[in-house]
Write the structure tokens for this entry.
Amino acid sequence: MSSLNRTKILLGITGGIAAYKVPALVRLLLANGADIQVVFSANAHHFVTPTAIQALTGKPVRDNLWDAEAELAMGHIELARWADLILITPATANSIAKFANGIADDLLSTLLLASEVPVLLAPAMNQRMYLHPATQSNLQRLSAFGYSFIGPDSGEQACGDEGPGRMSQPEAICEAVIQAVSDTNQPHASTSGNWLITAGPTQEPIDPVRYISNRSSGKQGLALAHAALAAGGNVTLVAGPGVPASNPRINRIDVITAVDMHAAVHRALTDIDVFLGVAAVADYRPTAAAEQKIKKTQKADDLTSLPLTENPDIIASVVASGSAKCVIGFAAETDNTLQHAKDKKQRKGLNAIILNDVSDQSIGFDSHQNAVIFIDDNGATSFEKQPKDRLAERLVHEIISRFDVA
Ligand SMILES: Cc1cc2nc3c(=O)[nH]c(=O)nc-3n(C[C@H](O)[C@H](O)[C@H](O)COP(=O)(O)O)c2cc1C
């Protein structure tokens, strides 16, 4: 039996140069037994012709929400219901921005909003467009909706630039579609263990309106949670304040303080294969948070010192509990980074530590990019500067293979 066995694929093509590769992809999907209906964005016409696509699929390309004849034959909502899976390739920066914001101003974006089936996108664009914070945060939003991505690949681009943003090859896209269809048919099979991940900062109240916190955005922890989910893991995310929305298939617990995070982690700590402590947990909290807002007019003496109490060491307590097979921490360091990270790994008894050199302002905190060194008992592996979601995928695969997570 063919692997796509009459799976109904709604294939969206948007206005990117890589659209010229889509006819080859259509042939591969058809050869694997897919039933394909292609929908063009208005700008896709500049890159590939409906005639070429129609000759392959045997169906007219749909491209217009206002085509009365096509609407009568199969209305747009009916078309959204028809699909078992939506694949958009190439997905331009513009279309990704529209999808991330729920804009429905043409047939393809309207179909996407009207559908509940799995969505796969193969982004393709110039590397600067891909690395732009607007595109990166749009991609994170789409991840949180549960959409999956194929690629993009890195390398030489049509415009002459070098970097990430090339559309994946038709063979890789076809393979990802076959995998997604097989995953959908066994939706609850966990193939990559139980993951417990902390992300973001904590806030330690001084009074009802003020707190001590740090610059962590939670993006790297969130990206790791999405990557572990995509790899087939069951994921629980304990998220500090301000961590962006996560995929609804992630079991998310929102907390504010380090003490709350510690309690939430220990409640979730049963049968965990991988604990990833990515959160930037405050080491200290004000000993007594004032119940009322502290006034500027209060005596200066009272305001010049703030007694602090040490917070629980969450990651060390996870190691001590023995309830996680593999415990991995993050070290954000600014000086003598490798030595500090190795010391921390040793001191806390971690299986591995992921070192983030935050003295480089273009990576780490607040940024969409990161570069890290993964250190375990077998040595250190460097991961060059790249978008946090790509890095997360690579780290999750590294962890799965090094620690035999299943
Ligand atoms: C020659 C050419 C190639 C382009 N290639 C891409 C591309 O690969 N990716 C992309 O995001 N935009 C690309 N663009 C820009 C998009 O076509 C433009 O943003 C358009 O508004 C996208 O519309 P759509 O998303 O509705 O299809 C290209 C534009 C031109 C003129």
